Give the backbone structure.
Amino acid sequence: MGLFDRVSRVVRSNLNAAVSSAEDPEKILEQAIIDMQEDLVQLRQAVASAIASQKRMQQQYNQAQTEANNWTQRAQLALKKGNEDLAREALGRKKSQVETATALKAQLDQQSATVDTLKRNLIALEGKISEAKTKKDMLKARAGAAKANEQLQKTMGNMSTSSAMGAFERMEEKVLQMEAQSQAAAELAGATLETQFMELEAGSDVDDELSAMKAQLLGGTEGQALPAGAESSAAPSDSAVDDELEQLKTQLDQL
């Protein structure tokens, strides 16, 4: 393959690609219908012209036949009058008209066939145009739907869907965290209140036990008769009890 052929093929391929990318289906369909309608107008004109020619030929053929019949009658009249030369001349004119009529009949038959062909082509073209209009509307609708879908996909592609979904996920996580904090605060408040009551109940038990111990100690001391000489020994005993009570209070305060 020569260099010129290769360059020519590259140029033609680039031109075809440029034309294909520039083609708009709706515009191309509209132009195709316009072209077909222009062809229809021209075909109608051709059919009309062919029919007019057919009618002229028919008139010429009829006229030639009429003239041939007239010359036949004149030849007969000349023979009746005994003028053979005039009859011969009339028959010569008749022959010429017959030949003209025969030629016109051949042309007329051919023209009739041409007119019939043109009429069939006209009807076929009208049917194709009607079908093309229907297909054009369907294809335009499909092209419009395809464009709309393409535009929708581009719009969806340009939208920051991932970031938007990320924002929703972050907000959902934040709401869950807020709910957990609220629940923890409620539980903590309930636990603190319960702890306070438990401390009160525990303190009451200790106080009751302390009062009972005091009553027991005091009751035991009052019920016993101290012997003589025991007063000096009882004082140290009360002091020891007081010390023990002070130690017990100190331990309770430290709890």
Remarks:
- Helices lie at 3-22, 25-80, 84-158, 161-223, 231-254.
